[in-house]
Structures are given as C-alpha cells and as structure tokens.
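To whoever is on call:

I kicked off a structure prediction for a single chain this morning and the downstream step that reads the tokens threw a length-mismatch warning. I double-checked the sequence; it's 442 residues and nothing unusual in it as far as I can see. Pasting both halves so you can look.
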Amino acid sequence: MRPPSTSPPSPSPSLWRDTDFRRLWAGQTASQLGEHTTLVVLPLFAVLTLDAGAGPLGALRAVGQAPILLLSLLAGAWVDRWRARTVMVLTDAARAVALGAAAVAGLLGLLGLPALFVVAFTVGALSVLFDVAYQASLVRMVRRDQLVRGNSALEGSRSAAQIGGPALGGALVSLLSAPVAAAAGALFFAVSFVSLRRIRRPESVPERVAPVPERPELAAPVRGRIREGLRFVAGNAWLRAVCLASAAFQLSFAATMTVYLLFLPRELHLTGATVGLALAATGPGALLGSVLAARLPGRLGHGVVLVSAAVLGNGALLCVPALHGSTTATILALLAVNFVFGTFSQLVNVTVMSVRQAVTPDGMQGRAAATITFVGMGFTPLGSLLGGLLAQEWGLRTGLLVTAAGMMLSPVLMAASPLARLGRLLPVPREEPRPTERRGSE
C-alpha cells in the first residue's frame, strides 16, 4: 500500500458553483426529509395510535431495518454496474408510491400494524439502494480532493432533514393523523425525484466503460462481484476497523433507540410532538458536526477526531436514563443531549465516509459502501429486537442504561485500530488488482 501523499492538492473550484452538484444536494435533502419523517411516523403511529408494546415496536423497527442485512451486498454490486442517478430516481419514485398508498390506506381505516410492517420493509429496502447510490454518485461527480467538502455538504443536508423530519413527523401524527404524515413523506420523495432528474452531467460507470476484452469479469455473476467487494474490504485494515466499529455502534444504537422511543412517551410522559422536537435536536447538532468535519480532521488528524468524537457523542446518551418527569428542565436536558449526540455522531459519520472513499478505487466504491453497510448496519434488526426484549424484561430505565453503555464499545474498537493513527492527510487508494489476478486468486 502506498504511503499518504505529502504534496498539497491543487486548488479546486467551489462545489456550489456546480449546478449538477446543487441538484444532487437538493434531491438528497428532500429524500432525507422524507426518510426521517417516515422513521418517526411509523413507530409513533404504532405506539400512540395502535398502543403497540415493546415487542411489537421492536419487531416493526427490525422489519424496517432487515433490508440492510438482506440487500446491501446486492445493492453494491448493482450500483457499480448502473448509473447511480438512475437508481436514486427510481427509488425515490417507488418510495413516494409506497407512502402514498399507506396514506390512502390510513384514510380508509386500513393502516393497521400489518400494513405498517409492509410499508416499513418496502421503504427500508428502497432506502438501502438510494443510500449506496448517492455515495457512489458523489465520487463519480466530484474530484477526489473535493470529497470531504462534498460529503460535508451532503451530510449537512441529511442534518437539515434531521431537524425538520422528526419534528414534522411527530407534529403531524400528534395534531393530525398518521396518513397525513405518510403523505408528507411521499411528497418529499417526489420533490427529490424531480431534482435528481434534472441533473444533466453524463455519468460514467467504472465497470461498464472499460473495453470488454480487458474486463472479461464483467460477465461474471453478481455473486462474483459481491465476493470481490467482501475481499477488498476484508483486505484493507482501515475498512476492517470501520466495519467492526460500525457493527458495534449500530447494534447498540438500534437497541437504544427502540427503548428510547418507549422511554420518552411512557416513562417521561412526553407527547408525540415533544418527542419529535427532542429527536429533532440532533439536526442542529449534526449541522454543526458537518461544518466541523470539513475542518477538524485536517487540523487535528482524522484518527484523533474519530475516537474523541465517538466518545463524546455516544457518552452523551448515558445521561438520558437519569431524567425524570416531563418538566421544562427534562425537556431542555433532552434537547442538549440530542444536540451533543448529533454533533459528534455526524463528525464521525462524515470523517469515516471520507476515509472510506479515499482508500477505495472508483470501480469498487459501490461495493465497498454496501459491504460496510451490510456488516455495520446488518446488526440493526437484531439490535431492535434486543432493545425490545431488554425493555420488556428489565424495564425501560435499566434497559436504556444498558443499551446506551453498549455504544461505548465503538470508540474502544476504533482506538485499538489503525483508524486511530490516521493523520491530517487522507491515504490514497490501493491499486485494484488486474482481472487476471482476481481470477487466479479465486
């Protein structure tokens, strides 16, 4: 593996002068608003309207997260063979249709728990494809030295969605109805569809632009491309560490959020609108985290930023089990905790994504992203079920304390890995093996 480059990159024009990048950013913002609205609407509808308990709520969240485990690797293989923009446009359209159908079913009185399971799985499956595609799309659209700024902007749009999505979803469910909230999510996906369709820049697909005689492996089945992605990630020490730390975080975070969504309305007696407001506080924090991610790694070092931000962000949630009642002080404390968590979690997210993109060749971007998603977030269905079980057996307060404490394993794993030793400059990608070398190693 080649050492990090020490020569400074040449100045590059501002991304905001790029019309197509602005359209990608706007579409990503609208899509994330739809996703974050839906993530709050479906659980709150189950808890507040259908009176779902810990077990059904954990199952609902697990069903929505199951596509991560089932489809991530396939999504990576597909995205590396197709235009990312096409994948994003199609998944936006399909999610708009799915949520629109849910809104109609709700207005007709048919939006029960079984229907919520179907909608959650459908939206979750389409979101897996969209998330892999937008990460690959950025790499194909901007220069490598613009990745950190591009990721900062896109993750900033996700942060903006975290501000409006939960608050809007909670308010709509509490003040109007779940069908209206589902219709709002469908509208956001429709707006994203329109914005992404307006991107005009031709997009090259790394696995389809090479002459066929030089790339005979293009005819290989999907499982062969999946194996290449798995081998690439497993053979890279930085990406292996990202996978382990992500798996530990996502397992504990999914369990924590399942208990958290029960703890706020039932233990602290907060309304749906207040729950949405509390969750939305992660949004301003994530906006700040996106801004910090464009500056701190280059000044303090990527490794220092990753470990310290993970400790501060994950540790903030350990304060929540100590809260009591629905007083103003409790609500302010929740807002502060979620703001801190949003800030440092976003700092970790953007930095990890930039590291992953920097060390991965262009033709492997989709599969590398999908493999890390599969390994990292594949544990979320198990975490959601585990959170529901702990809340049921140990009580909400104890269950929340245990699951939040489990989140501290992620920074421990990063501190013990090569990620902690990353400096101010990002490493360069390892050369892709030639097709004959890959076939010979199989």
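Update from on-call: the warning came from a stale cache, not from the record. Cleared it. Sanity check on the structure: Confidence is low (pLDDT under 50) at residues 1-11, 209-219, 432-442.
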